[in-house]
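Dear colleague,

As promised, here are the two records you asked about, laid out in our usual form so they can be pasted straight into your sheet.

NAME FIELD: protein one
SEQUENCE, THEN STRUCTURE:
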Amino acid sequence: MNSKTVSRIGILGVLLFAASCILGGYSIEGYDSLRKFISETYAIDTTYGIYLRMFGIIPSGVLFTLFFFYAKNTFLSIKSLQLGFMDLSFSMVYQP
C-alpha cells in the first residue's frame, strides 16, 4: 500500500472520530464534553447512540488499526516518524 493511501486512511479515521464526538455532543441536550465521558454520547439509551457506534466510533477504530499496521511498514524509513511511533507506543503502555 502506498503512502498516500495510508495517510488518507489515518486522516479519515481521525475525521470520522472527531465528527462522531462532535455530533454525539450536540445530540444530547445539556451534554458538557469537559465534564462527561465521550462514551455517554453513544450509550445504548441515547437517541442516536446506535448510529454513532455503527457509523462513527467502530469504523474509526478499524481505520486507526489499519493505519497503524500499514504505517509501520510504509513510513518507518523516516527517522522522525520512527521516534514518533516509539513515543506513541510508550505513552500507550506507560500511563502513570
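NAME FIELD: protein two
SEQUENCE, THEN STRUCTURE:
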Amino acid sequence: MTAKRHVAPMNQYAPPIPGRAVILSVALAINIATYYLGAHALWSSAFVVVAELSIASIAIFFTFGQWLTWCNLFLWLMALFHVGYYLPAKLGVIDEYVHAPISGPIANTTLLLFGAAVLSFALGCSFARPEQVSRRAIGAQCEPDIAKTVLYCGLILAALSIVCAMMFIMQIGGPAAILHFTYLDFFNMFTIGGTENSRYALTFLEYYPDGSLLVYFGLAALKAPRYCFRIWLVSTMCAVTSTLLLGSRGTTILLLLGWAYLRHQMVARLNLKILGIMAVALVIIIPWVASHRNEHDYDKTAISDMQLTPLVPVVEMGLTYRCLYAMVEVLSDGTQPLNGRSYYEAIRRLVPFSGSNDPDSFLGTSVWLNRIADPADLAHNGSFGSSGIGEPYANFGYPAVVVFFVLIGWGFSALETSFLKRDSIMAGAMVTLIIIPMGFFVRGDITSPIRSIVWPWLLLLFLKKRASFVQLLSRSYVHGHREHLAIRQNAK
C-alpha cells in the first residue's frame, strides 16, 4: 500500500503467542470456574473489572505493536457500553439507578459475563499472528486497481443508499415530515407496526455508513487530491445530520470513530488536537441528543443533573449494562432461552426484504427482552435496547459467550493483522466494512450487523473478481494483438 504505516515491527514488541495466551487462558479459566462454582461475586469488584480490561487491552497491544487498532477499539466499545455506568456508580461518583442495580446476585452474574466476553475476545485475538494469516501476494502494480475497486464499491453502496433515502422521504410526504418524527416513531417503524416505507429508510441507515467509510478508505489508498476528501466530508456531514436531528447518535459516533481509525492508519497519526476535538464533540453531542430523544424519565433526569461533563456520554452509553442485567434476570426467573432463534432470524433476514414487521413475530432480542421485562414500557418508550454479550447468553447460556467471543476475536485479529502487517488492501476494506455494524452489535444483536457486513463483502468480492477478469481479458487482447502485428511484419 502506498500509505505510510505507523506500526512498530512485530518482533520488537510481541512476545511468543503462548505467553499472552497462557495469561488470558488462566484468567478465563478462573472466570469459568467461578461461574460453575457459583462464586459470581468475585467479578463484581471495580478493581477486577479494571484489571481484566487492562490485561485484555495490553495483550491486544502486544499483538499489533500499537494501541489504536480495531480490535482494541471494539474491546473498549464493549467496556464503554457495558460498564460505563457501572464503574462510576460502583465508585460512588453517581447515584445508582433504580432499574439498573449494581449489587446482588443478578449484578454479579452480569459482571461475570462481561469478564468472560472481554477475556475470550482478547484470547481469540492472541491466536492470530501475521505469519498465520493466509494472504495471496499482491503485486505493487495491482494495488491501484484493487484500491479503485474498493472506491467503486463504496460509491455504489453510498449511491444506492441515497436513492433509498430519497424514496423514503417522498413516500412519507417530503423532508418536512421527518422533523415531526420522534425516536419512538422511528423505533416503531423499524420494529412493531412498521410499513413498507421503513425498508427504504433501514437500507439507507444500514449501508450508507459502510459506503461512506469505504469511499474514504479508497481515497486514502489512492492518495486522492485534497478536494476529494472535502467532498466526502461535506456529503457525509449532510447525511448524518438528519440522524442526529431524529435522536439517533450511534451512526455519527461510529462514523467519527471509523474515520479516526482509518486516518491514523492510512493518512497521518492522530494528534492531541484532533483527539481533543473529538472528545469535546462527544461531550456536547451525546447529552444534547439524549435530551431530545424519548429516554426513560429516570435516565433523563440523572443525565441532565450532570450537565456537560465528560461523565455524561460515558454514563449515557453505559446504560447497556441494564440490558445485560435484564437478560440475566429474565433467564434466572425461568424464561426459556432462545435456543438459536435470534441467529436463525439473522440468517433468514440476509435475504433482501424477507423481514417481518408483524408485532407478534420475533423482532430481535431487544423487543423479545422488553416484551418479557416491561411490555408497558415497550409501548410507551420503545425498546431500551439489547446487548451483544447478552445475545449468545440468551441463546445457549454461558458457554456460548466464551465460544462466540473467542471466534470473533480470532476473526477480527486475522483480518487486521493482514491489513496492518501485510498491507492487504482487501483485508483493510473488509475491516472497514465491519467497523460500524459491529459497533452497533455491541449494544444490540447480530440481526442487523450481519446483513450490513455480508452484502457489502459480497459486492466487494464480486467487483474484485470482475476487475481481475476484465484485466485478464485486456492483457490477453493486447498480447494477441501484438502477436498478430509481429506475424504481419514477418510476412512482409
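A couple of things worth noting about protein two: The longest helix spans residues 447-491. The chain is about 75% helix and 0% strand.

Best,
R.
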